[in-house]
């Protein structure tokens, strides 16, 4: 052990001789450190070739990790009488008397304050940022816990009509229990979905289950969140403007309505080193109206309920609401059966606001967005196809929605059974243009030939369908101002619905 201790002392001393003076700190004795030509006798301990004393200009005492050593330095080695900032190393020197280093011991090193640079702006930022980050994490965790707890509450909201309420009870999968969360937790602010900070954690809370649809925009997945199914629309990178537009509208406008697709959150997430843009909404397992009509037929009452719900959703979009948490008027610009979802109660809700136009008469502004994508050519109104639309007038965009609404009503009535007769599903203008018509092909059919979808004779034999047929014809006028408004369509269909209910009730009483 003695040899090891001596070796440690030698290595430390050799290292000290190589250390530049500006990298070491003085811990020498209180004697003045100055040059001297006088030789002194020093105690020599734990050093090789040392009989017990030695002669030099300086006597030193070192401690290296507990191993003590004493000996002599020549005048040229005076700078070694300083110690580097190394834990476990101490050196002291003296030359005031012979054997002065016998009295030297390791002093208690005073606490050294860090230089000013170590307590600069970066350190202050860290001291502030770390607690704030921890506070944010705790707040987000609390929000997630509150959402989970409230999602476990029973949900008792039913549809207004008794028939719809019955269907809600029968179909356990109808409209998941999002109601409590939005009614009790997320009504603050002007947006429709969850609070912004909660939205930015949604992607980590959702488990994707299955892909339920694909399109030019990207994919739609069914996911699970707090025990409920949700729809996750994952936008492709080339359609990111649609994601930005829908996120902007849903987060700044009160759009909560039974016939508008319910918005939950918008989030970004990373997958396979690429960024994905997510739009999380209510999930409706029956899919789009386009998909539903492929395999389902309707009775006249079901047809009316479906048409009325689409018109009601469009009225809510088109109407400006003046209140503390109101909404501007919105034109959809891409209304079609693929952008309408079917709910389990037989009603519909309008989706996909990526091309929407916003107008506020109260604040006098028109926001058309900056999305380069255009609407679907098959559903374009004549003034869009011949480029005569007044793009600076908001009413023009509403009128194009009415044209498309008429085509959607035509699709629904075509799949309605009357006297045992029903037609196969076909898209509008299927008999005059190809499956993917060009802009010019649609312009010729709609603007030049002024062709309109044909109506089957059976529609005239039923009071409900004959009225709906009349409504859709008034949505197809070549002149935009001559078309019905969404409000007029809804009022007409609402009265038709009331008359049908009264007739049904009277029939029940007679029986």
Can you characterise this structure?
This protein is α+β, with helices and mostly antiparallel strands. It has 3 domains: 2-107, CD59, CATH 2.10.60; 145-156 and 171-281, Phosphorylase Kinase, domain 1 (2-Layer Sandwich), CATH 3.30.200; 284-503, Transferase(Phosphotransferase), domain 1 (Orthogonal Bundle). It is 36% helix and 18% strand. The protein has 14 helices and 17 strands. The protein has helices spanning 2-18, 121-151, 162-170, 179-184, 196-199, 202-205, 240-252, 289-295, 300-318, 382-385, 394-414, 439-448, 463-474, 486-510, and strands at residues 24-25, 40-43, 53-56, 58-64, 67-73, 83-84, 89-94, 207-215, 218-225, 228-235, 263-271, 274-282, 329-331, 340-342, 348-350, 357-360, 365-367. The strands form 6 sheets. A 5-stranded antiparallel sheet has the order 8-9-10-12-11. The protein has a 3-stranded antiparallel sheet with strand order 5-4-7. It has a 3-stranded antiparallel sheet with strand order 13-16-17. A hairpin with a 5-residue loop joins strand 14 (340-342) and strand 15 (348-350). It starts with a helix and ends with a helix. Residues 3-35, 152-174 and 184-189 have low confidence and may be disordered.
Which properties best describe this structure?
511 residues; alpha+beta; CD59; Phosphorylase Kinase, domain 1; Transferase(Phosphotransferase), domain 1; five-stranded antiparallel β-sheet; three-stranded antiparallel β-sheet; 36% helix; disordered N terminus; transferase; transmembrane
């Amino acid at each position: 052990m003695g040899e090891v201790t001596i070796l440690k002392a030698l290595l430390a001393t050799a290292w000290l001789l190589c250390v530049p003076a500006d990298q070491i700190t003085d811990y020498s004795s209180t004697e003045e450190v100055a040059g001297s030509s006088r030789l002194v006798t020093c105690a020599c301990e734990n050093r090789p070739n040392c009989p017990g004393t030695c002669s030099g200009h300086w006597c030193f005492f070192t401690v290296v990790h507990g191993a003590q050593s004493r000996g002599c330095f020549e005048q040229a080695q005076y700078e070694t009488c300083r110690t580097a900032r190394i834990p476990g190393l101490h050196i002291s020197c003296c030359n005031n008397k012979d054997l002065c280093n016998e009295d030297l011991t390791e002093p208690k090193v005073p606490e050294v304050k860090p230089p000013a640079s170590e307590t600069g702006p970066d350190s202050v930022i860290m001291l502030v940022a770390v607690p704030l980050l921890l506070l944010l994490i705790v707040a987000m965790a609390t929000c997630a816990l509150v959402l989970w707890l409230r999602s476990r509450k029973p949900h008792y909201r039913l549809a207004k009509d008794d028939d719809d309420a019955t269907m809600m009870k029968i179909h356990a999968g109808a409209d998941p229990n999002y109601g409590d969360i939005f009614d009790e937790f997320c009504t603050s602010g002007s947006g429709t979905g969850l609070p912004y900070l909660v939205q930015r954690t949604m992607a980590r809370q959702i488990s994707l289950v299955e892909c339920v649809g694909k399109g030019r925009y990207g994919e739609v997945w069914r996911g699970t969140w707090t025990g409920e199914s949700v729809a996750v629309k994952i936008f492709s990178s080339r359609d990111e403007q649609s994601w930005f537009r829908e996120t902007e509208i849903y987060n700044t406008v009160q759009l909560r309505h039974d016939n508008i697709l319910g918005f939950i959150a918008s989030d970004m997430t990373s997958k396979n080193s690429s960024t994905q843009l997510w739009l999380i909404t209510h999930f409706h397992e029956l899919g789009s109206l386009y998909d539903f009509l492929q395999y389902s037929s309707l009775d006249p009452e079901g047809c009316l309920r479906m048409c009325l719900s689409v018109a009601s959703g469009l009225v809510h979009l088109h109407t400006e609401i003046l209140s503390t948490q109101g909404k501007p008027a919105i034109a959809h610009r891409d209304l079609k059966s693929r952008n309408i979802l079917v709910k389990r109660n037989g009603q519909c809700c309008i989706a996909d606001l990526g091309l929407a136009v916003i107008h506020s008469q109260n604040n006098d502004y028109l926001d058309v967005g900056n999305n380069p994508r255009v609407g679907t050519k098959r559903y374009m109104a004549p003034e869009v196809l011949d480029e005569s639309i007044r793009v600076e007038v908001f009413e023009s965009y509403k009128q194009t929605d009415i044209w498309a609404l008429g085509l959607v009503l035509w699709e629904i009535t075509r799949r309605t059974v009357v006297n045992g007769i029903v037609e196969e599903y076909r898209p509008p203008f299927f008999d005059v243009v190809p499956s993917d018509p060009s802009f010019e092909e649609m312009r010729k059919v709609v603007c030049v030939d002024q062709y309109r979808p044909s109506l089957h004779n059976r529609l005239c034999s039923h009071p409900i369908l004959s009225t709906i047929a009349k409504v859709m014809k008034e949505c197809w006028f070549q002149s935009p101002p001559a078309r019905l408004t969404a409000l007029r369509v809804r009022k007409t269909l609402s009265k038709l619905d009331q008359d049908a209910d009264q007739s049904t009730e009277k029939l029940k009483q007679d029986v």
